[in-house]
Amino acid sequence: MLRHAIISLGLAVSACAQGGGEAPEENAAANGPASAATQRFANIAWALDDPAAAPGSFRIFLADGTLVMDSCFETYRIAEWRATGETTLIWTEDMAEIPAHIKDLTDEKLTLVLTLSNEEATRTFSRIKGEMLCPAR
Q1: How many domains is the chain partitioned into structurally?
Q2: Which tens digit of pLDDT belongs to each residue from 91-132?
Q3: Does residue 134 sit within a domain?
Q4: 96-105 and 109-115: which strand pairing?
Q5: Is the pLDDT of residue 51 over 50?
Q6: Does the residue 32 lie in any domain?
Q7: Where residue 39 sits, what CATH number does that domain have?
Q8: Contact indicator for 63, 43 with CB cutoff of 8 Å
């Protein structure tokens, strides 16, 4: 029940993020350099395309610098993210910064290359359209 409330809250905030609050210039100054690329993937729910990942894994990079991460079987995570350049970003996970660069971005796909402590990892996401349900356990 709490999971549904958090997901609903994240989606509601995502839908409302375009509508008010600080001006885009102020938001960019607070969260790093705004870029056309980061503006194109923010406020969209992205499903992770990785059969090895937990089912239903998704990310929502909100324009206010909040990152919502969840899956059907893991505890949700709220983190901070920011753009660091035209095609680069960083977020904090377990007190570690995860730098990434945008390898590919279309209306339907987002591919990030993450710089992890001992390797690079590519993560591809598909835009979630409509309802996404977790499989029955």
Answers
A1: 1
A2: 999 999 999 999 999 999 999 999 999 999 999 999 999 999
A3: no
A4: antiparallel
A5: yes
A6: yes
A7: 2.40.128
A8: yes
